[in-house]
């Protein structure tokens, strides 16, 4: 425990991974929304 320093961790990779995850979720939601609109237009 003596070797720990508060706030000393580099989290740039974590932030980049999280931003990629959020971007993927947003893309998936947009695709699902577009598919639902398409299905509504063709009266499926």
Mean pLDDT: 90
Task: Determine Rg (CA atoms, Å).
Answer: 20 Å
Share of residues in strands: under 5%
Sheet with most strands: none
Gap between N and C termini: 62 Å
Shape: rod-shaped
Question: Total number of helical segments?
Answer: 1
Class by SSE composition: mainly alpha
Strand segment tally: 0
Q: Which ranges are low-confidence, i.e. pLDDT below 50, for 5 or more consecutive residues?
A: none
Helix content: 55-70%
The topology string of helices and strands comes to H
Provide keyphrases for this structure.
44 residues, mainly alpha
Structure notes:
The structure is a single chain. This protein has 44 residues and is mainly α. 68% of the residues lie in helices and 0% in strands. It contains one helix and no strands. It has one helix at 12-41. The radius of gyration is 20 Å and the shape is rod-shaped. 0% of the residues are buried.
In short:
The protein has 44 residues and is mostly helical. The protein has 1 helix and no strands. 0% of the residues are buried.
